[in-house]
Amino acid sequence: xxxxxxxxxxxxxxxxxxxxxxxxxxxxxxxxxxxxxxxxxxxxxxxxxxxxxxxxxxxxxxxxxxxxxxxxxxxxxxxxxxxxxxxxxxxxxxxxxxxxxxxxxxxxxxxxxxxxxxxxxxxxxxxxxxxxxxxxxxxxxxxxxxxxxxxxxxxxxxxxxxxxxxxxxxxxxxxxxxxxxxxxxxxxxxxxxxxxxxxxxxxxxxxxxxxxxxxxxxxxxxxxxx
Length: 226
Known about the structure:
Elements lengths: L12 H19 L4 H9 L13 H4 L7 H22 L1 H34 L2 H12 L7 H14 L4 E3 L6 E3 H18 L6 H20 L6
Antiparallel strand pairs: 1-2
Helix pairs in contact: 1-2, 1-4, 4-5, 4-7, 5-6, 5-7, 5-9, 7-8, 7-9, 8-9
């Protein structure tokens, strides 16, 4: 989508530094020698809490890793497109808090969705040893990317600027931000239940849910206005 309204091409500090950090980490993932990039990814990506590889700090570090250049590009482009407006709306300190909290919230909801799925298969299989052997790949698959936090940014933009018109790239249809956000939320929720792929759809949903709750809390406390 394209939205360069109000000429706000200047990038405020938190958004700029988040993009720089994500880019530098991706360079480290892809360019460090002797397998150090893969080790970095292995240590910092998020694993399910039953995995031997899980560490609590991964709830934060996973959102600074990416699996490919396109993964990085689309996340950072979306962060730049919408996050710069939100940083002006909230202030830099509050926006950084918002970004980190929604990213962690996305990881928590995604982990809970995995827990429910793993529990379902364990019940279905019955035999604990067979179930654990079957589920080992699911338990030990790493999750990485800023998408949860970025979807939170998207939700916040739709709440704070609901009538701002966005123009989609494919197809080029103008749409108010509030409708765009609703459509994205429904699509991600449906795909989370219906599609088995390597996309963490429930992390996207989790980021949007935490963003909604955090904005409502701040509004009730008089911290932000929209």
